Amino acid sequence: MSQLLQSVFSGLALGSLFAVIGIGFVIIHRVTGVLNLAQGALAVLGAYLMSDLVGTLPWVASLLVGSAVVAVVAALIGVAVITARQTLEYSPTIMTLGIAIASQGVFVLIWGDLPHTYPPISQVAWRVAGAFVLPQQLLLLVTASVALVLLQLFFSRAYLGKALTAAALNPRSAQLVGIDLVRVGTIAFAVSGAVAGASGAIFGALVPVTPHSHLGLAVAGFAAAVLGNLYSPTATMAGGLLLGQLTSAAATYGLPEYQQVVALVVLILVLLGRTLWQRRGGVLT
Amino acid sequence: MLQVEELVVRYGGLEALHQVSLTVADGDFVAVLGRNGAGKSTLVKAIAGVLPVASGRIIHDGDRIDGARPAQVVRHGIAVVPEGRQLFGQLNVRDNLRLGAFGVTSRGLLGMARTLLPRQRLVEARVERVLHLLPELAGLLDRPAGVLSGGEQQMVAVGRALVADPRVLVVDELSLGLAPRVVTRLLAHLATLNQEGISIVLIEQNIALALQASRSAYVLEGGVVRFRGRSADLANDDTVLSAYLGVSEAVH
Fold first, then answer.
1. pTM of this prediction?
2. Minimum CA–CA partner of B107 in chain A
3. How does pLDDT run across B166-198, given as a tens digit for each residue?
4. Which of chain A's residues have a Cβ under 8 Å away from the Cβ of B103?
5. Do B115 and A159 touch (CB under 8 A)?
6. Is B215 exposed, middle or buried (0-12, 13-18, 19+ CB in 10 A)?
7. Who is most buried in A9, A126, B199, B202, counting CB within 10 A?
């Protein structure tokens, strides 16, 4: 029982990270039509920056500064990718893949290839029915939830949110009313980068990061986003949390080496299921 | 005054416009006519800043606007109603109208910061003013733009462009796919807007209607201006009408 509960707690944190990365996929895809495969690398960058900052700045300040830096990096990727889109339709996603692969080399160069970790916001652990829950795990869940709520409000209420939606619905028309496609696309990348960086920074205190961590995170985040139809942040959040539970259960019940495979299997099953459903004439909402 | 001077636009390696010149005086109502592929839409896109200009100049109120980005063109007082309406289908009519002012309100850092708010007084005031000009829109505000009839959509598209408070309104293919009765009503609205001082450039396939509504007219063919003059004169010019527009008899 306590083992199951422990798995659920770990899965909650892992799932929150997957969810935030997935929501980043959704936002960028909704606004620009690009799949940002460097989304996992942005989370890893957040963790590495945190490992450097946390020794000099207070914990929360490190988190904020680190996330801001990741947002800037994401914005730069956004500008490059969206500018490239104007010439070649398929190049942007390939570009983000290139950036993701190159980031691995950059991480090794700057931080070496040994796992990095750092202290969490608090060293206490709460005992719940024989299992331990860490403030850090809750912090990650809260961060993901707050990000979700803010983004929902942003897209449904803010004038800029409507403009971002408009840019996705009809880029040509959006341009004509004065919505700058490069600018709104860059905003989408920056926002996704900030939340991915923050979650990565929080997660890095729970599980050490390595230069190779980004791929598994990108795959899991993408799988979560696919569960959200690449459109709904809420469904993506649910998908991420589900994947987190499955991955955590795999690790808890003796299959740690299959952790990475869980997201891929879910991804393939969901895509396959959807195709079969559509073949039978089903309509997806 | 909007002046297009010796404009050359290349499109996929081909020259789509060859030294096209066009003048829209303040308060003018200009029809731009021509068959499919004559270069009409290319002209609209070049003016809107969507297509790059190879050579020539576009001048509005003394400022060069060729090479300007679309957002800058809107801010300069030129709004476009695109061919085929191109509304934001999943957003409701009110949001479609509001977004018409995005370019003019999102200027600078402060302007961008303000776009984080759900409502801005300036935008709402402009939407109200447009509802006053196009009262038919008032009943449609909460409906998704995508479910409206073609005529209603065209009305929203005109309204969205008007929210930018333009001095020049460029309308690309107003009548496309619409019932004649609906087109007549839309043209009446354009005439009213024109009387209120907005210059209108109407790109049209329906030659008879366009010549009736406009004061001056241009005929494009193969990216070249073949006729410029008063609309009334063109309506009587059987040679031009049959040579470039495929009209077999005069439309007067």
1. 0.86
2. A178
3. 999 999 999 988 998 999 999 999 999 999 999
4. 177-179
5. yes
6. middle
7. B202
Q: Which of A159, A179, A182, A191 to mutate to test the interface with B (most CBs of B within 10 A)?
A: A159
Exposed, middle or buried by CB within 10 Å (0-12, 13-18, 19+), for A86? exposed
Which of B45, B88, B90, B91 is the best residue to mutate to test the A interface, defined by the most A CB atoms within 10 Å of its own CB?
B88
Length reported for chain A: 285
CA distances (Å), origin B240, targets B29, B60, B243 = 20, 29, 5
Helix or strand (DSSP H, E) at B28: none
**Tokens encoding A75:** 């914005």
Q: Is the ipTM of this complex over 0.95?
A: no
* Range A2-279 classified under CATH 1.10.3470: yes
Give the one of A162, A172, A180 whose C-beta lies nearest to B99's C-beta.
A162
Bridge partners (DSSP) listed for residue B14: B11
Measured distance CA(B171)–CA(B161) in Å, rounded: 9
**Strands, E, within chain B: which ranges?**
2-11, 14-24, 29-33, 55-60, 63-64, 78-81, 168-172, 199-204, 216-221, 224-230
